[in-house]
Amino acid sequence: MAHIKRGTVSRRKHNKLLGLTKGYRGTKSKLVKVAKEAALHAGQYAYNGRKQKKQDFRRLWITRIGEAVKKENLSYSVFIDKLHKANIELDRKILSNLVVEDPKTFKFIVDKVK
After folding, report:
1. Dist. CA 23–CA 99, nearest whole Å
2. Cα separation values, 59 from 32, 34, 37, 56, Å
3. Which of 41, 71, 88, 100 gives 20 to 30 Å between its CA and that of 12?
4. What is the residue-averaged pLDDT of the chain?
């Protein structure tokens, strides 16, 4: 009996996987078993990175607002508290944006809160 060829599906899967891991160091981009492991880890890092990104940006916004408010002789926590009490509903992202792009408006908000 003649040898039956197989593996077009496997070949396609393997090539797809090796395409994903292209550029990885050493055998991680060459050997299917190792590449599969590397791709799984990369996916996990990417997932965690998407969560981390949100934390990092919030931290950045808080730092920016804190520094800007310090110049007005207020602490960050006091400023945020006064914002809530004054019923001004601006989130940290917008406040941070104001600090960078429109300091006059930010100063106006700080003065209003004081």
Report:
1. 40
2. 40, 36, 33, 5
3. 41
4. 94
